[in-house]
Design goal:
Elements: E1 10-15, H1 19-30, E2 37-42, H2 79-87, H3 103-119, E3 125-130, E4 134-140, E5 143-148, E6 153-156, E7 158-161, E8 184-185, E9 202-206, H4 210-221, E10 228-232, E11 239-240, H5 253-258, H6 263-279, H7 285-291, H8 295-301, H9 304-322, E12 324-325, H10 327-338, E13 342-346, E14 348-354, E15 359-365, E16 368-379, H11 393-400, E17 421-423, E18 429-435, H12 441-444, H13 450-472
Bound molecules: flavin-adenine dinucleotide.
Length: about 475
């Protein structure tokens, strides 16, 4: 960041106003004695502060992380629980920290934090909101010109890419004609995919993880009574947060991550503990939970081959134990399975043909072909990670001109692990372009949920603040 005139406001453009963009802005606004800054917050697609996750299509959807871990501020761990104490009507106040509130409730918490920070009237901190998509960034000497999709432009000294979750990728091996079928729903987070349901035909969901669970809940809440089929290569089932078994705690995750651990050593250590836990009839989940804060260190210590091996062979297993759902949602899912209204196939779709009122699909499930007709196919495979395939015009443009490049294993944007400083296609580190959130997945691996994103937001804001001081001549 370099300024020619002193004491001019530093213009900070934040592109994306979900959790990451807004939390970074809150930290900037809450910083005492900042030299003059003007924050340009550019957001379209989902409501400001709430983003995709916390403005869900279905009222009953719960957080997939307990309230006690959802504070927006890592240094005030019970901030969200305190907020709930005055803003919710939970029956068991003493169990608030281990309970799961609705995502809408959490969205209201974030919106309130944002409104409070943005409405503070301070002369040296101003905010402009743009309800529009940013489509490109042009370099102009030391400045960045942000082009919005309505042809408006703005000049910034620094820009933050906080564009969040991309749509799922089009399923491999599917006929291209499916893309334009009126019965194919590519966006599982939009209300349209669970509305206008026909009563007499089944539905097929591609994917078997958290997005599938949300969609099934949404369909059930909308009164859908037919069978929901889900398909994924392995057919793994998500586990609930609460386990009846005693927790296994005899693992020192900090020690594992403090030395350079190879993938092979890590798998051996994990398997050793898994076997002991099984013999003791104890839950292995504390092992996963204790490893999570250390996964960025462990990931960065892997070489490229190990990272690729992890993605190819272990990622699905990790995902199936790492992602868990609230017991209430698990209960509904299991009930639907028991009633045969939810059937999980392990295999892949090999063909689909449009009918007059839906689609005929053929699945290959380990050599066994299954054919049936459905009224719609909903893609719940999770956000696309490859930036050139996300369909986000801004990221496509920046990628095509080399301003950003793909992160390790083609996941997200290549960036510095400490502060998200973008690394260009020519490997140079940019001082005025940053990335935060799940586009740091290739760099950090664990860059998905609030417990790690809140830390990123604070670090990024602090880094930018020190740049602002240096640039402003204070
Ligand atoms: C359905 C779902 C449920 C989840 N539940 C939880 C949970 O319970 N607990 C948890 O910790 N984590 C959860 N997560 C993870 C969640 O992604 C993070 O917690 C967090 O919300 C991510 O915020 P973000 O700002 O990075 O992205 P997003 O929330 O995706 O926000 C990005 C925003 O930027 C906008 N945008 C994108 N490109 C542009 C552009 N070019 N110009 C302008 N605007 C743009 C988008 O439309 C969107 O409004 C969930 C994720 C999903 C998808």
């Amino acid at each position: 960041m370099a300024l020619t005139e002193t004491h001019q406001p530093v213009n900070i453009a934040i592109i994306g106003g979900g959790f990451c963009g807004v939390l970074t802005a809150i930290h900037l606004l809450n910083h005492q004695c900042l030299p003059p800054v003007h924050i340009h917050l550019i957001n379209k697609g989902y409501p400001i502060a709430k983003g995709i996750a916390y403005a869900p299509h279905t009222a009953s959807l719960l957080l997939n992380v307990p309230n006690g871990r959802m504070s927006a501020f890592a240094d005030i761990p019970d901030h969200y629980v305190q907020w709930l104490q005055t803003n919710s009507s939970f029956d068991h106040q003493d169990e608030l920290a281990i309970a799961f509130s609705t995502r809408r409730q959490y969205g209201n918490y974030l919106a309130q934090l944002w409104n409070e920070a943005a409405s503070k009237k301070e002369e040296n901190k101003t905010v402009t909101l743009y309800n529009n998509y940013a489509g490109d960034i042009i370099e102009d000497n030391n400045k960045l010109i942000i082009q919005l999709c309505d042809h408006q432009t703005l000049r910034a000294d620094v820009a933050i890419l906080a564009t969040g979750n991309a749509l799922p990728r089009f399923p491999d091996g599917m006929p291209v004609s499916l893309k334009s079928s009126e019965y194919y729903f590519e966006d599982p987070w939009k209300k349209g995919c669970i509305e206008n349901l026909k009563t007499e035909k089944d539905i097929l969901i591609i994917g078997n993880g958290l997005t599938m669970t949300d969609t099934v809940m949404g369909l059930a809440e909308n009164g859908f009574k037919q069978t929901i089929h889900t398909i994924s290569p392995n057919g793994y089932r998500l586990k609930p947060w609460a386990e009846a078994k005693k927790p296994y705690t005899d693992v020192d995750a900090a020690a594992i991550s403090s030395r350079e651990t190879t993938l092979l050593e890590l798998v051996k250590t994990f398997n050793k503990h898994r076997k002991i836990a099984t013999q003791l009839n104890q839950s292995i989940y504390p092992i996963i939970d204790s490893l999570r804060p250390h996964t960025p260190n462990i990931w960065q210590a892997f070489n490229s081959r190990e990272k690729q091996q992890f993605i190819s062979y272990l990622n699905t297993h990790w995902g199936s134990v790492r992602h868990r759902i609230p017991p209430e949602m698990q209960h509904l899912i299991e009930q639907l399975r028991a009633e045969k209204r939810l059937i999980t196939h392990s295999g892949r779709i090999i063909s689909s043909n449009d009918l007059q009122d839906g689609l005929n699909v053929t699945l290959n499930c380990n050599g066994q072909l299954k054919q049936f007709s459905v009224q719609r196919i909903i893609n719940c495979t999770g956000p696309e990670n490859h930036i050139s395939k996300t369909g986000n015009k801004l990221l496509n443009n920046l990628y095509n001109k080399g301003l950003i490049s793909a992160g390790p294993c083609n996941m997200g944007i290549h960036a510095h692990p400490e502060n998200g400083q973008v690394i260009n296609a020519d490997q140079s580190l940019r001082s005025n372009l940053f990335v935060i959130g799940n586009n740091l997945k290739g760099t950090l691996w664990e860059s998905t949920a609030v417990p790690e994103l809140r830390v990123q937001a604070k670090k990024l804001a602090q880094h930018i603040i020190s740049g602002v001081y240096a640039a402003s001549g204070y």
